[in-house]
Amino acid sequence: MSAQRESVPSVDTSNLPNGSGAAALLAAGIGAFVLSALAIATDHVAAMKSLMNFYEPTGPLSGVTSSAILVWLLAWVGLDARWKRRTVALRSIVTAALVLLALSFVLTFPPVGDLF
Amino acid sequence: MEITTRALWTTIHGMGFGALYLLACSGAVVELWRHFAPREPVPVSAGDERFLRIYLAMMTLLAWLAVLTGAYMIYPWYRAAPPAGTANLAAFPQRLLMSSPATIGWHSIGMEWKEHVAWLVPISISMASGVLFKYGGSIKNHPALRNGVLSFVVVSFLAAGIAGFFGAMINKAAPVQGGATIHRMRGGESR
């Protein structure tokens, strides 16, 4: 083990604007929230239940998760294309992403989802 | 010793992918918290950066393997509907749990929560991996970004913990069984 730590990063990323990171965080928040919203809708609306049944053995869970993943990835690609060269208001975007994540976490808890 | 193929896959899903992910989470949180803290005076080395990128990529792989095997292999076995008139529900875990007021909660709360909350894990850790892949050590220059990533990793840990806990308890109350039986090692008689 060398006594001296390497201090030179392999690729210089020090001047990257924060836009790409903000896009990744917000997209993850959106994807998580869409997942919980679709889960609740599928639980309460019969038409949604059959619409989300992409793969019979797994049932509506297959459609809920596949749709949420698709929305998440599209949001990530879209926001990244828009923000990757920009410096954005990171603090408020991170806050929005965390609120969406917290909401999705709570909404997936069945007794909360059943309130709707 | 023998195990059915369904029980083996359930073990791989839970003890392999899920439990390994939970173990790895603590390492990711400590690494992000200590080495990538904005106040940390020592610059992030190329080695640290590479290590965390690979570490998070492996966690991402584990998370996806856990949810995909869960949703597309084990869950169909769990929710299989028994033919009309079936009296023995041992091969139909969901129906077995729902057949008794003492166990229905494991399905209506446990499985219903687990099957959805578990998907927050691959979303969160893929995002964290993507951000670290792009920014590497320079994430220290964006404290809000680093804190956001750290928060998502912590939430993924909680979500994986919930999924793991309910998975273990549900499989204890109504194990997923069936498929071919695999025989390994014949034990001797105890004296």
Architecture overview:
The complex is a heterodimer of chains A (116) and B (191). Chain A is mainly alpha-helical and 116 residues long. Chain A is built from 5 helices and no strands. In chain A, helix 1 (19-44) packs antiparallel against helix 3 (60-83) and helix 1 (19-44) packs parallel to helix 4 (90-107). The longest helix of chain A is centred in the first third of the chain and has 26 residues, at 19-44. Chain B has one domain (2-79, 90-183). Chain B is mostly helical and 191 residues long. Chain B starts with a strand and ends in an 8-residue tail after the last strand. Chains A and B meet through helix 1, helix 3 and helix 4 of A and helix 2, helix 4, helix 5 and helix 6 of B.
Percent helix among the residues of chain A?
55-70%
Shape of chain B: elongated
How many domains of chain A, as an integer? 1
- Roughly how many Å apart are the termini of chain B? 18 Å
Number of helices of chain A: 5
Any idea what the radius of gyration of chain B is?
21 Å
Q: Rg of chain A from C-alpha positions?
A: 19 Å
Stretches of chain B where pLDDT is under 50 for at least 5 consecutive residues are none
What value does the average pLDDT of chain A take? 91
Spatial order of the strands forming the largest sheet of chain B:
1-2
N to C succession of SSEs of chain B? EHHHHHHE
What is the number of strand segments of chain A?
0
Sheet of most strands of chain A: none
What would you call the structural class of chain A? mainly alpha
Strand content of chain A: under 5%
Considering residues with a beta carbon less than 8 A from a beta carbon on another chain, report the largest interface and each chain's count. A-B, 48 and 48 residues
- The coarse overall form of chain A would be elongated
Strand content of chain B: under 5%
